[in-house]
Protein backbone atom coordinates (compact mmCIF):
# COMPACT_ATOMS: atom_id res chain seq x y z
CA UNK A 1 0.00 0.00 0.00
CA UNK A 2 1.42 3.37 -0.99
CA UNK A 3 1.32 6.00 1.75
CA UNK A 4 -0.38 9.26 0.80
CA UNK A 5 0.42 12.81 1.86
CA UNK A 6 -2.78 13.06 3.83
CA UNK A 7 -1.88 13.45 7.50
CA UNK A 8 1.13 15.71 7.62
CA UNK A 9 2.83 16.04 10.96
CA UNK A 10 5.01 18.64 12.61
CA UNK A 11 5.88 21.72 10.63
CA UNK A 12 4.11 20.54 7.48
CA UNK A 13 0.78 20.03 9.24
CA UNK A 14 1.14 23.33 11.03
CA UNK A 15 1.85 25.17 7.82
CA UNK A 16 -1.06 23.73 5.91
CA UNK A 17 -3.38 24.16 8.88
CA UNK A 18 -2.48 27.72 9.72
CA UNK A 19 -1.33 29.43 6.53
CA UNK A 20 -3.52 30.57 3.64
CA UNK A 21 -3.32 27.82 1.04
CA UNK A 22 -2.14 30.19 -1.67
CA UNK A 23 1.06 30.74 0.30
CA UNK A 24 1.54 27.27 1.81
CA UNK A 25 4.59 26.32 -0.24
CA UNK A 26 8.18 26.76 0.89
CA UNK A 27 10.98 27.74 -1.43
CA UNK A 28 12.07 25.03 -3.84
CA UNK A 29 15.08 23.02 -2.62
CA UNK A 30 16.60 23.45 -6.08
CA UNK A 31 16.65 27.27 -5.83
CA UNK A 32 17.19 27.88 -2.12
CA UNK A 33 20.88 27.81 -1.15
CA UNK A 34 21.71 25.98 2.05
CA UNK A 35 23.26 27.82 4.94
CA UNK A 36 25.81 26.05 7.14
CA UNK A 37 23.09 25.79 9.81
CA UNK A 38 20.72 24.07 7.37
CA UNK A 39 23.45 21.70 6.26
CA UNK A 40 24.02 20.77 9.90
CA UNK A 41 20.27 20.16 10.37
CA UNK A 42 20.23 17.84 7.36
CA UNK A 43 23.31 15.87 8.36
CA UNK A 44 21.47 13.33 10.60
CA UNK A 45 18.77 12.75 7.95
CA UNK A 46 18.93 9.69 5.65
CA UNK A 47 19.95 10.73 2.11
CA UNK A 48 16.69 9.49 0.59
CA UNK A 49 14.72 11.75 2.93
CA UNK A 50 16.68 14.99 2.62
CA UNK A 51 14.53 16.54 -0.10
CA UNK A 52 11.45 15.97 2.04
CA UNK A 53 13.33 17.35 5.04
CA UNK A 54 14.06 20.53 3.09
CA UNK A 55 10.33 20.94 2.45
CA UNK A 56 9.62 20.50 6.16
CA UNK A 57 12.29 23.08 6.99
CA UNK A 58 10.70 25.52 4.56
CA UNK A 59 7.30 25.05 6.17
CA UNK A 60 8.86 25.60 9.59
CA UNK A 61 10.45 28.90 8.52
CA UNK A 62 7.19 30.06 7.01
CA UNK A 63 5.25 29.36 10.20
CA UNK A 64 7.54 30.72 12.87
CA UNK A 65 6.63 30.22 16.51
CA UNK A 66 3.37 28.47 17.35
CA UNK A 67 1.06 30.31 19.71
CA UNK A 68 -2.55 30.11 20.80
CA UNK A 69 -3.69 32.84 18.41
CA UNK A 70 -2.29 30.92 15.43
CA UNK A 71 -3.81 27.65 16.57
CA UNK A 72 -7.27 29.10 17.13
CA UNK A 73 -7.10 30.87 13.76
CA UNK A 74 -6.58 27.46 12.14
CA UNK A 75 -10.05 26.39 13.29
CA UNK A 76 -11.54 29.01 10.96
CA UNK A 77 -9.74 27.37 8.03
CA UNK A 78 -10.99 23.90 8.86
CA UNK A 79 -8.25 22.86 11.26
CA UNK A 80 -6.10 20.88 8.86
CA UNK A 81 -4.78 20.50 5.32
CA UNK A 82 -7.25 19.87 2.49
CA UNK A 83 -8.67 16.35 2.53
CA UNK A 84 -7.65 14.33 -0.55
CA UNK A 85 -10.25 12.83 -2.83
CA UNK A 86 -11.87 9.74 -1.35
CA UNK A 87 -11.96 6.30 -2.92
CA UNK A 88 -15.27 5.54 -4.57
CA UNK A 89 -15.30 1.83 -3.72
CA UNK A 90 -14.83 2.06 0.08
CA UNK A 91 -17.88 3.57 1.83
CA UNK A 92 -17.54 6.37 4.36
CA UNK A 93 -20.31 7.64 6.62
CA UNK A 94 -20.42 10.41 9.21
CA UNK A 95 -22.04 9.55 12.52
CA UNK A 96 -22.87 11.87 15.41
CA UNK A 97 -22.99 10.11 18.76
CA UNK A 98 -23.72 11.21 22.33
CA UNK A 99 -20.67 12.73 23.93
CA UNK A 100 -19.31 11.98 27.40
CA UNK A 101 -21.37 13.13 30.35
CA UNK A 102 -21.88 16.87 30.05
CA UNK A 103 -19.99 17.05 26.76
CA UNK A 104 -21.11 17.83 23.21
CA UNK A 105 -21.85 15.22 20.58
CA UNK A 106 -18.87 13.54 18.96
CA UNK A 107 -18.46 13.16 15.21
CA UNK A 108 -17.21 9.82 13.91
CA UNK A 109 -16.10 8.84 10.42
CA UNK A 110 -17.08 5.24 9.74
CA UNK A 111 -15.03 3.62 6.98
CA UNK A 112 -15.93 0.37 5.23
CA UNK A 113 -18.88 -0.73 7.36
CA UNK A 114 -20.69 -3.77 6.01
CA UNK A 115 -23.53 -5.32 8.02
CA UNK A 116 -23.81 -9.09 7.95
CA UNK A 117 -20.05 -9.69 8.14
CA UNK A 118 -17.69 -10.30 11.03
CA UNK A 119 -14.45 -8.45 10.32
CA UNK A 120 -11.75 -6.83 12.46
CA UNK A 121 -11.88 -3.14 13.28
CA UNK A 122 -9.64 -0.18 14.12
CA UNK A 123 -10.51 2.79 16.31
CA UNK A 124 -8.35 5.56 14.86
CA UNK A 125 -7.26 8.86 16.43
CA UNK A 126 -5.65 11.54 14.23
CA UNK A 127 -2.44 13.46 14.86
CA UNK A 128 -1.72 17.16 15.26
CA UNK A 129 0.13 17.69 18.53
CA UNK A 130 -3.14 17.69 20.55
CA UNK A 131 -3.78 21.18 19.15
CA UNK A 132 -4.36 20.71 15.40
CA UNK A 133 -5.60 18.28 12.80
CA UNK A 134 -8.90 16.77 11.83
CA UNK A 135 -10.10 13.24 11.27
CA UNK A 136 -11.40 14.19 7.81
CA UNK A 137 -7.86 14.63 6.48
CA UNK A 138 -7.03 10.97 7.06
CA UNK A 139 -10.05 9.41 5.35
CA UNK A 140 -8.39 8.49 2.04
CA UNK A 141 -5.50 6.79 3.83
CA UNK A 142 -7.90 4.95 6.15
CA UNK A 143 -9.95 3.79 3.16
CA UNK A 144 -6.81 2.28 1.67
CA UNK A 145 -5.98 0.54 4.94
CA UNK A 146 -9.54 -0.74 5.40
CA UNK A 147 -9.55 -2.16 1.89
CA UNK A 148 -6.19 -3.86 2.32
CA UNK A 149 -7.06 -5.46 5.66
CA UNK A 150 -10.78 -5.99 4.92
CA UNK A 151 -11.66 -4.23 8.16
CA UNK A 152 -13.91 -1.46 9.42
CA UNK A 153 -12.33 1.74 10.76
CA UNK A 154 -13.91 4.37 13.01
CA UNK A 155 -12.02 7.67 13.29
CA UNK A 156 -12.91 10.10 16.07
CA UNK A 157 -13.14 13.88 15.66
CA UNK A 158 -12.11 14.47 19.26
CA UNK A 159 -12.00 17.92 20.82
CA UNK A 160 -8.67 19.73 20.65
CA UNK A 161 -6.59 21.77 23.06
CA UNK A 162 -6.43 24.48 24.23
CA UNK A 163 -10.25 24.70 24.14
CA UNK A 164 -10.47 21.25 25.77
CA UNK A 165 -8.00 19.57 28.09
CA UNK A 166 -6.96 15.92 28.17
CA UNK A 167 -10.10 14.80 30.03
CA UNK A 168 -12.39 15.91 27.20
CA UNK A 169 -10.46 14.33 24.37
CA UNK A 170 -9.85 11.07 26.23
CA UNK A 171 -13.59 10.77 26.91
CA UNK A 172 -14.47 11.66 23.29
CA UNK A 173 -12.27 8.83 22.07
CA UNK A 174 -13.66 6.40 24.60
CA UNK A 175 -17.19 7.36 23.53
CA UNK A 176 -16.20 6.49 19.96
CA UNK A 177 -14.83 3.14 21.07
CA UNK A 178 -17.95 2.38 23.11
CA UNK A 179 -20.19 3.24 20.14
CA UNK A 180 -18.10 1.06 17.85
CA UNK A 181 -18.31 -1.88 20.24
CA UNK A 182 -22.05 -1.45 20.82
CA UNK A 183 -22.86 -1.23 17.11
CA UNK A 184 -20.76 -4.16 15.97
CA UNK A 185 -23.59 -5.86 14.08
CA UNK A 186 -24.40 -2.90 11.84
CA UNK A 187 -20.71 -2.28 11.22
CA UNK A 188 -19.91 -5.89 10.37
CA UNK A 189 -17.44 -5.93 13.25
CA UNK A 190 -16.05 -8.83 15.24
CA UNK A 191 -15.98 -7.35 18.76
CA UNK A 192 -13.06 -9.60 19.76
CA UNK A 193 -10.82 -8.06 17.08
CA UNK A 194 -10.66 -4.33 17.80
CA UNK A 195 -7.33 -2.49 17.55
CA UNK A 196 -6.56 1.12 18.44
CA UNK A 197 -4.18 3.13 16.30
CA UNK A 198 -3.00 6.66 15.62
CA UNK A 199 -0.10 8.83 14.54
CA UNK A 200 1.88 11.31 16.66
CA UNK A 201 -0.59 12.85 19.14
CA UNK A 202 -3.08 10.33 17.75
CA UNK A 203 -0.64 7.60 18.76
CA UNK A 204 -0.58 9.10 22.23
CA UNK A 205 -4.37 9.10 22.27
CA UNK A 206 -4.45 5.47 21.11
CA UNK A 207 -2.10 4.52 23.95
CA UNK A 208 -4.30 6.42 26.43
CA UNK A 209 -7.36 4.68 25.02
CA UNK A 210 -5.77 1.26 25.51
CA UNK A 211 -4.96 2.19 29.11
CA UNK A 212 -8.46 3.56 29.74
CA UNK A 213 -10.12 0.47 28.26
CA UNK A 214 -7.96 -1.81 30.40
CA UNK A 215 -8.74 0.14 33.56
CA UNK A 216 -12.51 0.26 32.94
CA UNK A 217 -12.77 -3.37 31.89
CA UNK A 218 -15.75 -2.83 29.58
CA UNK A 219 -14.30 -3.22 26.08
CA UNK A 220 -11.53 -5.66 25.14
CA UNK A 221 -8.76 -4.27 22.93
CA UNK A 222 -6.87 -6.81 20.84
CA UNK A 223 -3.92 -4.69 19.71
CA UNK A 224 -2.42 -1.20 19.66
CA UNK A 225 -0.51 0.18 16.66
CA UNK A 226 1.28 3.39 17.61
CA UNK A 227 2.95 5.46 14.89
CA UNK A 228 5.67 7.82 16.21
CA UNK A 229 3.41 8.29 19.23
CA UNK A 230 3.53 11.39 21.46
CA UNK A 231 3.81 9.73 24.86
CA UNK A 232 5.78 11.85 27.34
CA UNK A 233 5.26 15.49 28.37
CA UNK A 234 8.83 15.71 29.65
CA UNK A 235 10.45 15.35 26.21
CA UNK A 236 12.08 18.57 25.07
CA UNK A 237 11.55 20.22 28.44
CA UNK A 238 12.42 18.45 31.67
CA UNK A 239 14.13 15.81 29.52
CA UNK A 240 16.41 17.22 26.83
CA UNK A 241 17.22 15.32 23.64
CA UNK A 242 20.61 14.89 21.92
CA UNK A 243 21.51 17.61 19.40
CA UNK A 244 21.16 15.33 16.37
CA UNK A 245 17.53 14.53 17.27
CA UNK A 246 14.58 16.59 15.94
CA UNK A 247 16.66 18.87 13.72
CA UNK A 248 13.73 18.56 11.27
CA UNK A 249 10.02 18.09 11.98
CA UNK A 250 8.14 18.42 15.25
CA UNK A 251 10.42 20.33 17.61
CA UNK A 252 11.01 20.43 21.34
CA UNK A 253 9.35 23.84 21.67
CA UNK A 254 6.31 22.74 19.65
CA UNK A 255 6.08 19.64 21.80
CA UNK A 256 6.13 21.62 25.00
CA UNK A 257 3.44 23.96 23.67
CA UNK A 258 1.22 21.02 22.66
CA UNK A 259 1.54 19.36 26.06
CA UNK A 260 0.96 22.63 27.91
CA UNK A 261 -2.26 23.19 25.99
CA UNK A 262 -3.37 19.58 26.50
CA UNK A 263 -2.60 19.48 30.23
CA UNK A 264 -3.52 23.11 30.98
CA UNK A 265 -0.46 23.30 33.18
CA UNK A 266 3.29 23.31 32.84
CA UNK A 267 4.48 19.96 31.44
CA UNK A 268 7.31 18.03 33.00
CA UNK A 269 6.50 18.65 36.66
CA UNK A 270 5.53 16.23 39.41
CA UNK A 271 2.03 17.76 39.41
CA UNK A 272 1.16 16.40 35.95
CA UNK A 273 -1.61 13.75 36.31
CA UNK A 274 -0.47 10.27 35.31
CA UNK A 275 -3.79 9.50 33.58
CA UNK A 276 -3.04 12.20 30.99
CA UNK A 277 0.37 10.87 29.91
CA UNK A 278 1.03 7.29 28.77
CA UNK A 279 4.70 7.43 29.82
CA UNK A 280 3.67 8.35 33.38
CA UNK A 281 1.40 5.29 33.73
CA UNK A 282 3.09 3.26 36.46
CA UNK A 283 1.56 -0.13 35.64
CA UNK A 284 1.56 -1.24 31.99
CA UNK A 285 0.71 -4.89 32.70
CA UNK A 286 -2.43 -6.21 31.06
CA UNK A 287 -2.34 -3.83 28.11
CA UNK A 288 -2.91 -5.24 24.62
CA UNK A 289 0.07 -6.31 22.50
CA UNK A 290 1.71 -3.35 20.79
CA UNK A 291 3.45 -2.32 17.61
CA UNK A 292 5.44 0.92 17.89
CA UNK A 293 7.35 2.57 15.04
CA UNK A 294 9.34 5.78 14.92
CA UNK A 295 12.14 7.48 13.03
CA UNK A 296 15.65 7.38 14.43
CA UNK A 297 15.94 11.18 14.57
CA UNK A 298 12.31 11.88 15.49
CA UNK A 299 11.84 13.92 18.67
CA UNK A 300 9.85 10.99 20.08
CA UNK A 301 12.41 8.24 19.44
CA UNK A 302 13.68 8.09 23.02
CA UNK A 303 10.28 8.09 24.68
CA UNK A 304 8.93 5.54 22.20
CA UNK A 305 11.85 3.15 22.71
CA UNK A 306 11.46 3.53 26.48
CA UNK A 307 7.70 2.87 26.33
CA UNK A 308 8.29 -0.26 24.23
CA UNK A 309 10.87 -1.46 26.76
CA UNK A 310 8.49 -0.85 29.66
CA UNK A 311 5.67 -2.67 27.89
CA UNK A 312 7.97 -5.61 27.24
CA UNK A 313 9.15 -5.60 30.87
CA UNK A 314 5.48 -5.67 31.94
CA UNK A 315 4.86 -8.82 29.93
CA UNK A 316 3.14 -7.07 27.01
CA UNK A 317 4.20 -8.53 23.66
CA UNK A 318 5.70 -5.55 21.84
CA UNK A 319 7.29 -5.03 18.43
CA UNK A 320 9.44 -1.92 17.91
CA UNK A 321 10.66 -0.54 14.59
CA UNK A 322 13.13 2.37 14.44
CA UNK A 323 13.99 3.73 10.98
CA UNK A 324 17.51 5.21 10.85
CA UNK A 325 17.74 8.82 9.76
CA UNK A 326 13.97 9.35 9.62
CA UNK A 327 12.38 12.51 11.02
CA UNK A 328 8.87 13.06 12.37
CA UNK A 329 6.24 12.66 9.65
CA UNK A 330 8.78 11.52 7.04
CA UNK A 331 6.45 8.84 5.70
CA UNK A 332 3.87 11.47 4.79
CA UNK A 333 6.32 13.84 3.10
CA UNK A 334 8.30 11.11 1.30
CA UNK A 335 5.76 8.28 0.84
CA UNK A 336 7.66 6.59 -1.99
CA UNK A 337 11.02 6.48 -0.21
CA UNK A 338 12.32 3.01 0.77
CA UNK A 339 12.13 4.03 4.41
CA UNK A 340 8.45 5.03 4.16
CA UNK A 341 7.57 1.86 2.27
CA UNK A 342 9.20 -0.25 4.98
CA UNK A 343 7.51 1.81 7.69
CA UNK A 344 4.03 1.54 6.22
CA UNK A 345 4.30 -2.13 5.28
CA UNK A 346 5.50 -3.10 8.76
CA UNK A 347 2.46 -1.46 10.37
CA UNK A 348 0.02 -3.09 7.96
CA UNK A 349 1.54 -6.52 8.48
CA UNK A 350 1.57 -6.11 12.28
CA UNK A 351 -2.16 -5.37 12.19
CA UNK A 352 -2.77 -8.26 9.83
CA UNK A 353 -0.96 -10.70 12.14
CA UNK A 354 -2.89 -9.42 15.13
CA UNK A 355 -6.24 -9.78 13.36
CA UNK A 356 -5.46 -13.26 12.04
CA UNK A 357 -3.78 -14.62 15.17
CA UNK A 358 -5.21 -16.35 18.24
CA UNK A 359 -7.56 -14.32 20.43
CA UNK A 360 -6.46 -13.09 23.86
Automatic annotation (TrEMBL):
Coiled-coil blocks: none
InterPro entries in alphabetical order: AB_hydrolase_3, AB_hydrolase_fold, GDXG_lipolytic_enzyme
UniProt-listed SUPFAM superfamilies: alpha/beta-Hydrolases
A GO term for molecular function: hydrolase activity
Domain Alpha/beta hydrolase fold-3: 122-330
Domain of life: Bacteria
UniProtKB keywords: Hydrolase, Signal
Signal peptide: 1-24
Presence of keyword Transferase: no
Protein name per Swiss-Prot or TrEMBL: Alpha/beta hydrolase
Organism the protein comes from: Sphingomonas rustica
